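Q: My collaborator sent me two sequences in one message, no labels, and asked for predicted structures for both. Can we handle them in order? The first one she listed is below.
A: Yes, handling them in the order given. First sequence, followed by its structure tokens:
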Amino acid sequence: MSEQAQKGGINRSEGIQFLVIAAIAVAAFALVLAHVNEVVIFIVCGIAVAGMAHVLGLATEQAGEAAGPRVSALLNATFGNAAELIIVVLAVRQGGELIDVARYSIIGSVIGNVLLILGASLLVSGIKNGRQGFSAAIAGVNATMLLLATVALALPTLFNGLSHMDTGATVNLSHGVAIVMVILYAAYLFHAFQSPEESGAATGHARWSTRLALAVLAVSAIITGVLSEFLVSAIEPTIEQTGISPVFIGLIVVPLVGNIAEHFAAVKIAAKGDLDFSMGIAFNSALQVALAVTAVAVLAGFVFGHELALAFGALEIAVLIAAAVVAAFIAISGKATWLEGLELLAIYAIAAIAFWYV
């Protein structure tokens, strides 16, 4: 059978999803042009960005299908984080209170990937497939990297709390940490691709052509960028009108909007019984935010003149450490059940309630 015959393009279900998401995006554009209430714009743009992130996820899944589970997991994480990266950079560019939103969203995304995405994946996989095994070697490396990333994010906070110098010292330390993070992430990728592929996920069954997948990626990325601009512009008025704190918006709302692609991809793959691939998406996404997106955010602060110091609150760091430690215990076991997934989700729910009252 020829390649053209094998690739059927966008199916009916995906077509309906694309039409619905496109309608929401058009509605968001219309609301912005009509200058309606910023809270309404924030909500609709948030839904639209989440929808576009889902489209990015579908296109990424098709683009990486033939490349193997490791490359697919990396692509899912990279394009799944695209919406959040855009939002963080735009927030840093605007400065002011949005610097806090950008800073908190870094921690919130790591927590969301480790607790919410990984937890939901283990829960669904356990309910559908029972106790599942996975590569403890690969998961252990990912968990160790996550612990190291947690230390890198926590040290500037500890330094800021103990140091009697001005915040400029913390900013300078953040610059140094960002450089180390980039080097560490590059080393992590090099190590990952030097190791043998262990996942048994099927590959080479992409329904879309490469040209179609790349076209959808390009168009959806552009639309996501524009919608993210609208979303970021509406954050401060939304905070003022609703009283919701920048902490909650940064830690919970922005990561949920930006990580919807990983949610769908990781949980769907976990339901099929491939925990290696699913956990790879969750860990890759968390590490990419903790190491790469953090470095980009710090660089953006330097470029735009709105320095972003990696100084977080004690509560955020405590939840981040708890998430990394629990994930490490699960990773080294090589097996997981639905109960462990539920435990991760429970920690996330408790953290979200706590962040609401901060």
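Q: And the one she listed second?
A: Here it is, processed independently of the first:
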Amino acid sequence: MKFDIRISNIIFYLLILFLPTQFGRHFWPDFSYIAGIRIDYLSPALYLTDILIFLLFVFWLINKIRSKKKEVIIHDSKFMVFSALVVFLILGILFSKNQAAGWYGLLKLVELIFLGFYTAINIKKIKINIVLILLSVGLIFESFLATVQYLQQSSVDGIFYFFGERTFNGQTPGIANASIGGELFLRPYGTFPHPNVLAGYLIVVMTMIISKFNPSTKLRTGEQKSKLIKILFLGSLTFGTIALFLTMSRIAIVLWMLIVGLWFIQFSVFNLKFKMKYKNLINKNSMKISNFKLKILTLVLVASVLFLSPLHSRFTDLKLTDESVTIRQELIKSSVFMIKENPIFGVGINNYLDQLPYYQRINNYFTDLQPVHNIYFLVAAQTGIVGLAFFIWFIFKTYQRIKNTTQNSKLQKNLYFINSSSLIIILSSILILGLFDHYFLTLQQGQLIFSFTLGLCWIKQS
């Protein structure tokens, strides 16, 4: 059994390492076409990360059969609610116009629920520093690739194709460019399908890494980080910040600046209270963390000054008539029509794009035929008001779970991976970004990030 656990941990480590990649194979059944055009969002895909999650499920199932134990992290009432949700979604699929796409969407949802469940019950069994190191390696890799893409204004190609980078340049149809000073610049993609997805990944991972330098986390765990690991974390935060600004993702950049500010305030307040109440516990190691934190903050601020100044027009020149704004407005209008006509079951899970042509006039399939850039409208359009109510209820329960864990001193040790305030910041960042984009529900890497984060929020309490 110990051997199986070690293998499961290795698979989980590999999943964390390859989380930002999108190496996989797309399939194109009939339901993935609309008006004869291939739609990536509807295409079933088998990614390397899907295979790793399946292997996790196999080893988890083997351990369950051997141990004959029932491990759940939710009460019976919540289990009944989840069961009712699955039945409700199945009914929605049966009423939908594209049932095949619906069944695939439900299968994907089950996969993501398992990942969140597995993370919650097994995160204490893995070595946290290894997870953070792997996250840092992935962050540096993506930051390096994004920087090179920006400098040469095209994809790098070569071996990076196998990590998920696609061939593109500034003239590729539908590519994300940004106007700065009247000149168009290609926004880097890394191995992600869009610069905004790369930006969301950078924010979540950097917040996880920066949380490890919270004094309260160190006091609970008593862990000491080597200089090499500190340099790795510091480098990932620095290069990640640079890459984030290069993505020119407005909301993500503003969020990261707020997160850094909140982190610095939290650190300063904690240090002040700690010095006032526990002077006798202060040692040289606990004092060293202050200097290290100041170094991180200084580098982040310097990077911000260097890379924000050329981008001021990206924020100040935004107009309601810009194409990116008008497309979002049209998609929201279409979503409202869908909800009004299908208030109970919605149009069916994974059926939004299939039904979109019936609710708006598509001028350009490459730019307009995409999910609504708001996860709440997307949930309501696909699963109805009932589905949206469940989504909001679950998010509320998730915040409540974090709060209850924070207030219970016996459960604080379970948050050794990441402190509760950082969990709140990460979850809130995802939900805020979800107001302006859809990738946390529609794209592989975004889905994995969301599921992994929820798993951390619901970490097993015993």
